[in-house]
C-alpha cells in the first residue's frame, strides 16, 4: 500500500528535563513511543503485529492455514457462511513491507483522526471501512476476481478518506515532491485504484474502494451528529459488559458552546491567516507540536474549507 514517503502529522519525540530523556534504553524508547499512540491505534497495531509475528515464525503450513481459513473469501456462499473472515483478513499480511506500510499509514494519519473522533468511533470507522471493502469485493467477485484477500489496506484507505474529510488542507509530504493537500493526495490515491481495477496486479483494488466508501459514509454520518460509538456499546452489551444508555437515539450530544455563523465571509480572511500559521507550524514541527486549542482550530477551519 505504500505510495510514497509521508511525514504528517510528524512530531513525536518527547522531553523530560534538560538532557534527561523519558527512557534510558532502546527498548525503553520503543515502549515510550508505543504508549504515546492513541489507544485504538495502539491496540490495532499490537494485535496486527502479534498475528504477523505468528505468521512469520509459525512456518509455511501454519501461514497457509491462516490465510486459507481467516483470509477473506469473496466467493458465494463462503462470505455469508463464514462472516468472521470480513474482520480476520485485516490482521493478515503477505510480507513485511505489506505489514509495515499499512501500519505506518495507520499510525501517521490515523492519530489525528482518532484524536478528533475518539477511540470508539475510530474503531468503528476502521473496521467498518474494512468490512465494507470486503463486501464490495464479494459483490463484484464474479466480474473481477474471487481470490482470497488479506491485509488492512481497505480499512487504512477508509481512514485516509476520513483524514482528508476532517483535515482537507493538511499538507502531506511525499519524497521529492512539494507538500500536497490531503484532499488531493487521497483523491489521487483513489483514482489510481479506480484506474487499475481488474488489472490483475495482485492488489485488492475493490477492497480499497469499498474501504474509501466506508470512510466517506461514516465521517459524513459523524459530521451529521450520528454517534458511531454506539456500535461498540452494543457489542459490549451483547457480551454483558455494559448496559445501553436509555433514551439514546444514536446522536451525539451537541456542544453548548457551538454556534452557527451565517456571515462566514466576514471572518474568511482571518481564518485563512490562522490556518496558514497552523499548517506552517505542522510542516516545521509536526502535528504533535500543536496545542489542544490549535488542534481544535485546525479541525474547525478544515471543515469550513
UniProtKB/TrEMBL annotation:
EC numbers, comma separated? 3.4.21.105
User: What are the subcellular locations of this protein?
Assistant: Membrane
Identify the residues that the record assigns to the DUF6576 domain, covering every copy.
Answer: 271-304
- Record membrane topology: Multi-pass membrane protein
Is Transmembrane included in the keywords of this UniProt record? yes
- Report the domain of life of the source organism: Bacteria
**Enzyme superclass (EC):** hydrolase
Q: Which GO terms describe its biological process?
A: proteolysis
Q: What is this protein called?
A: Rhomboid family intramembrane serine protease
Question: Peptidase S54 rhomboid domain spans which residues?
Answer: 82-219
Record field: transmembrane: 39-58, 86-109, 121-142, 148-167, 174-196
**An example Gene Ontology molecular-function term:** peptidase activity
* PANTHER family tied to this protein: PRESENILIN-ASSOCIATED RHOMBOID-LIKE PROTEIN, MITOCHONDRIAL, RHOMBOID PROTEASE
Among InterPro entries, the record links this protein to:
DUF6576, Peptidase_S54_rhomboid_dom, Rhomboid-like_sf, Rhomboid_protease_S54
The family line of this record is: Belongs to the peptidase S54 family.
Q: Does the keyword Endoplasmic reticulum apply?
A: no
List keywords of the entry alphabetically.
Hydrolase, Membrane, Protease, Transmembrane, Transmembrane helix
Amino acid at each position: 500500500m505504500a505510495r510514497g514517503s509521508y511525514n504528517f502529522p510528524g512530531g513525536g519525540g518527547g522531553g523530560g528535563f534538560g538532557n534527561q530523556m523519558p527512557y534510558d534504553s532502546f527498548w525503553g524508547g520503543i515502549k515510550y513511543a508505543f504508549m504515546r499512540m492513541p489507544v485504538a491505534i495502539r491496540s490495532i497495531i499490537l494485535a496486527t503485529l502479534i498475528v504477523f509475528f505468528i505468521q512469520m515464525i509459525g512456518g509455511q503450513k501454519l501461514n497457509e492455514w491462516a490465510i486459507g481459513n481467516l483470509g477473506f473469501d469473496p466467493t458465494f456462499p463462503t462470505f455469508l457462511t463464514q462472516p468472521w473472515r470480513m474482520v480476520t483478513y485485516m490482521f493478515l499480511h503477505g510480507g513485511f513491507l505489506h505489514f509495515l506500510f499499512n501500519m505506518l499509514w495507520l499510525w501517521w494519519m490515523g492519530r489525528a483522526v482518532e484524536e478528533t473522533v475518539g477511540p470508539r468511533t475510530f474503531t468503528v470507522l476502521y473496521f467498518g471501512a474494512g468490512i465494507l471493502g470486503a463486501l464490495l469485493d464479494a459483490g463484484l467477485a464474479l466480474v473481477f476476481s474471487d481470490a482470497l484477500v488479506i491485509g488492512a489496506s481497505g480499512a487504512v484507505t477508509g481512514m485516509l478518506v476520513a483524514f482528508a474529510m476532517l483535515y482537507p488542507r493538511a499538507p502531506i509530504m511525499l519524497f521529492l515532491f512539494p507538500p500536497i493537500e490531503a484532499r488531493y493526495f487521497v483523491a489521487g490515491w483513489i483514482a489510481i485504484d479506480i484506474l487499475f481495477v481488474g488489472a490483475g496486479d495482485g492488489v485488492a483494488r475493490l477492497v480499497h474502494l469499498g474501504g474509501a466508501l466506508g470512510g466517506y459514509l461514516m465521517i459524513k454520518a459523524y459530521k451529521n451528529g450520528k454517534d458511531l460509538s454506539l456500535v461498540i456499546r452494543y457489542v459490549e452489551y451483547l457480551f454483558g459488559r455494559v448496559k445501553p444508555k436509555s433514551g439514546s437515539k444514536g446522536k451525539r450530544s451537541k456542544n453548548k458552546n457551538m454556534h452557527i455563523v451565517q456571515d462566514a465571509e466576514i471572518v474568511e480572511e482571518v481564518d485563512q491567516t490562522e490556518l496558514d500559521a497552523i499548517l506552517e507550524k505542522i510542516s516545521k514541527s509536526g502535528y504533535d507540536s500543536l496545542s489542544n486549542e490549535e488542534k481544535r482550530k485546525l479541525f474547525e477551519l478544515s471543515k469550513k474549507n
